[in-house]
């Protein structure tokens, strides 16, 4: 399946979080403009004018007398604050109108995945920054020197708990050689959703480094599997990888233990033996071993989903593959060093 199609499928899977983010920005924009209208009404001395200025936004939702009274003790906005509030409202309106493409970014070959993710989320996060600017301007605490930059970019590290629950989802395209996923751990908070669409060869288990009790983690090759992200309440990350990579899901909602949360449906038959960009064979093998060990420790190996194509027969024997649990055991034994075990204990 072409990369562009996979990206479109990923963006479709994130339609819910995208809509929630836009809705929050639209509501904040309406509120900022309502504040500006009410300030103008106070200057004109009249709740009736406030009602007219607020227009459709006020209908059935805002008591014009009480709303105008909120600002009577403040008087008019200072010119700099009024301008900041206007700009904040404009940014919020712009963010509310963003299409799916705004939630898509690409990492150039040799680029830094972590830096690309931070940059893309900071651009989207300017909606949060604009809402903060609007609040500061209304309260008379806006300072251009420290706050104006928030209207251009607002990094995830600055987001508060509520903002993290409204985190804008992100789809990142990148080469498999640049898939250093560990650095994304700091972003997986609140309800942040990230999908990695991987081009070309990739390490077999790069997302295993992100498996922690509260994070939904998915490695798959079929974009239809991404539908699971729509019902995840917390942070989630998924990677669309080549079919040669391991396939697993770690779902915090499935239980309190790793055995309940982790399901591995496929492990490569052999460990990587060649580097992939700056990703050494040893590093790739370590990640694959970690996944296998987690699966073995929790007895979490599970067969492929219903309807999936059956695995090919064993190349050496021509027989159907062993039971998944036996296959996992065989994989673990194959990578173990058994030198010196056995000896003359058999009594031949």
Describe this protein's structure.
The protein is α/β, with parallel strands linked by helices. The protein has 12 helices and 7 strands. The longest helix has 29 residues, at 15-43. The radius of gyration is 26 Å and the shape is elongated.
Could you give a quick summary of the protein structure above?
The chain is 40% helix and 10% strand.
Which structural category do the helix and sheet elements fall into?
A: alpha/beta
β-strand percent reads 5-15%
N-end to C-end Cα span: 56 Å
Number of strands: 7
Q: How large, in whole angstroms, is the Cα Rg? A: 26 Å
Low-confidence stretches: 41-62, 70-74, 303-322, 338-348
Order of helices and strands: HHHHHEHHHHEEEEEHEHH
- The dominant shape is elongated
Helix content: 25-40%
Assembly form of the protein: single chain
- Overall pLDDT: 82
Give the strand order, joined by hyphens, for the main sheet.
1-2-3-5-4-6-7
Provide a count of the helices. Answer: 12
Largest sheet entry: 7 strands, mixed
Produce the secondary structure layout.
Layout: H1 3-13, H2 15-43, H3 47-54, H4 64-69, H5 79-96, E1 104-106, H6 113-124, H7 126-138, H8 144-147, H9 161-165, E2 170-175, E3 193-199, E4 216-220, E5 236-240, E6 247-250, H10 258-261, E7 262-266, H11 281-297, H12 324-335
Parallel strand pairs: 1-2, 2-3, 3-5, 4-5
Antiparallel strand pairs: 4-6, 6-7
List keywords for this structure.
348 residues; alpha/beta; elongated; disordered C terminus
């Amino acid at each position: 399946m072409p990369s562009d199609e996979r990206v479109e499928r990923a963006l479709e899977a994130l339609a819910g979080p995208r809509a929630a983010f836009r809705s929050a920005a639209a509501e904040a924009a309406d509120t900022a403009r309502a504040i500006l209208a009410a300030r103008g009404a106070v200057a004109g001395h009249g709740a009736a004018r406030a009602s007219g200025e607020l227009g459709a936004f006020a209908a059935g939702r805002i008591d014009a007398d009480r709303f105008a009274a909120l600002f009577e003790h403040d008087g008019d906005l200072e010119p700099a604050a009024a301008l900041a509030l206007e700009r904040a409202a404009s940014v919020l309106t712009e963010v509310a109108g963003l299409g799916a493409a705004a939630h898509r970014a690409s990492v150039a070959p040799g680029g830094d995945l972590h830096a690309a993710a931070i940059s893309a989320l900071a651009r989207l996060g300017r909606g949060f920054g604009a809402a903060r600017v609007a609040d500061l301007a209304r309260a008379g605490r806006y300072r251009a020197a420290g706050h104006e930059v928030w209207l251009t970019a607002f990094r995830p590290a600055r987001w508060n708990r509520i903002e993290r629950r409204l985190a804008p989802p992100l789809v990142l395209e990148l080469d498999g050689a640049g898939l250093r996923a560990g650095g994304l751990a700091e972003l997986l908070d609140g309800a942040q959703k990230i999908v990695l669409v991987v081009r070309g060869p990739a390490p077999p288990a790069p997302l295993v480094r992100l498996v922690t009790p509260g994070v939904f983690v998915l490695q798959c090759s079929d974009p239809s599997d991404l539908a699971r992200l729509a019902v995840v309440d917390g942070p989630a990350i998924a990677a669309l990888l080549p079919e040669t990579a391991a396939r697993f899901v770690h779902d915090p909602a499935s239980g309190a233990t790793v055995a309940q949360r982790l399901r591995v449906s496929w492990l490569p038959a052999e460990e990587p033996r060649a580097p992939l960009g700056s990703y050494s064979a040893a590093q790739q093998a370590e990640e694959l071993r970690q996944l296998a060990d987690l699966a073995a420790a929790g007895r979490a190996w599970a067969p492929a989903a219903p309807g999936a194509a059956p695995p090919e027969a064993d190349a050496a024997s021509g027989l159907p593959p062993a039971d998944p649990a036996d296959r996992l055991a065989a994989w673990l034994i194959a990578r173990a060093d058994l030198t010196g075990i056995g000896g003359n204990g058999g009594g031949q």
